[in-house]
Design goal:
Strand content of chain A: 15-25%
Strand order of the largest sheet of chain B: 1-2-4-3
CATH architecture of one domain in chain B: 3-Layer(aba) Sandwich
Strand content of chain B: 5-15%
Structural class of chain A: mainly beta
Number of domains of chain A: 1
Distance between the termini of chain A: 24 Å
Helix content of chain B: 40-55%
Number of strands of chain A: 4
Order of helices and strands of chain A: EEEE
Largest sheet of chain B: 4 strands, antiparallel
CATH topology of one domain in chain B: NADH Oxidase
CATH superfamily of one domain in chain B: NADH Oxidase
Order of helices and strands of chain B: HHHHEHEHHEHEHHHHH
Shape of chain A: globular
Oligomer: heterodimer
Distance between the termini of chain B: 53 Å
Radius of gyration of chain B: 21 Å
Number of helices of chain B: 13
Radius of gyration of chain A: 10 Å
Chain lengths: ~45, ~280
């Protein structure tokens, strides 16, 4: 189980995303398998 | 709460000043100051009539020289929406977008006016691209404000430009019209949160521009790490893992690698001269 933060999420309200195989899946956004971090996990208001 | 607006601004900017008393209780200002993008939606699509009305409101926004060089495409057809969202599917949340609209820059109509009036278009240079792009951005911002005032959540998707030619083909965009951004829209499933911004001393200037200092960025890095820490680090395969991962580190890592290298070529293929 990884913990990501949606845009504006804080440590007090993390979004939990389950790891699936080599990648990740989740409702509020997921990191790409190549190790990149999409905007949805970095507090960006524009993807 | 009498200081609601100031509280929202302080949450956004570490050095926000107290707002004037006459502004504190203006609910529309509170909504704008406290907004956040939404990437988690209820499944129902936004009714087409609502999207049409929001689009009309967005197109009531300012336009450079009244040239009106922006168009909005409401993507109502499920297959069209799916094809467009496939272009940005590396972001998992886009798989659950209830409704989608696309904001386009349109310099084509201006050229049509010249044909109608029998006058040369004497401004076929970078400004034509720039003006239309800015007009589209203004409409996007106004659409977001309008949608959020209506209780909807939004998230602009700039990454549609990563595959701009394909998006253009799907939408049937002709020469001198190109996509600037898509916008995901729907009823929020999770209340958006405020994302802190750089301190105003770095971005809000009085009379003359002041250079952003390293100290300002470092202070913002520290503040943001305290209230909104990164749980994932970008490109650890190249740069490793940092014990002190910050906003500036994330942005530097992001733009240390090429993005949209072919965008200028795409814009030129649409007939723009960028000189």
């Amino acid at each position: 189980m990884l913990t990501l933060y949606d845009a504006g999420e804080t440590a007090a309200s993390p979004v939990h995303i389950a790891a699936v195989g080599g990648g990740l899946s989740g409702h509020n956004g997921a990191a790409r398998a190549d190790g990149d971090t999409p905007c949805c996990a970095t507090g960006a208001d524009v993807s | 709460m009498s200081d609601r607006l100031s509280a929202l601004l302080v949450a956004r900017f570490s050095d926000a000043r107290q707002a004037p008393a006459e502004l504190e209780r203006v609910s529309s200002l509170q909504a704008i100051a406290g907004r956040g993008s939404c990437r988690s939606f209820e499944p129902d699509p936004v009714p087409l009539d609502t999207l049409r009305t929001l689009g009309a409101i967005a197109l009531a926004s300012p336009s450079k020289s009244d040239l009106q060089q922006r168009d909005i495409v409401i993507v109502d057809d499920a297959e069209q929406k799916s094809r467009l969202l496939d272009l940005v599917s590396d972001q998992a949340w886009t798989g659950q977008v209830p409704s989608l609209v696309v904001f386009c820059a349109n310099n084509r109509r201006q050229r049509h006016l010249h044909e109608m009036q029998g006058l040369d278009f004497a401004n076929d240079h970078l400004d034509a691209f720039f003006n239309a792009s800015v007009d589209a951005g203004i409409a996007l911002a106004s659409f977001v404000v309008a949608a959020e005032a209506a209780g909807l959540g939004c998230c602009p998707i700039s990454t549609i430009r990563n595959r701009a030619a394909e998006a253009s083909d799907i939408l049937g965009l002709p020469d001198h019209v190109f996509p600037v951004a898509a916008l995901a829209i729907g009823r929020p499933a999770v209340a958006p949160r405020i994302s802190p911004r750089l301190p105003l001393r770095a971005t809000l200037h009085l009379d003359r521009f002041n250079e952003t200092t390293t100290a300002d960025i470092a202070a913002y890095d520290a503040e943001r790490a305290a209230v909104q820490p990164y749980a994932n680090q970008r490109r650890t395969d190249l740069y490793g893992t940092s014990d002190r991962y910050t906003w500036s580190m994330d942005k530097a890592r992001q733009y240390s690698l090429p993005e949209r290298k072919g965008f200028a070529q795409f814009i030129r293929s649409k007939g723009f001269r960028l000189d």
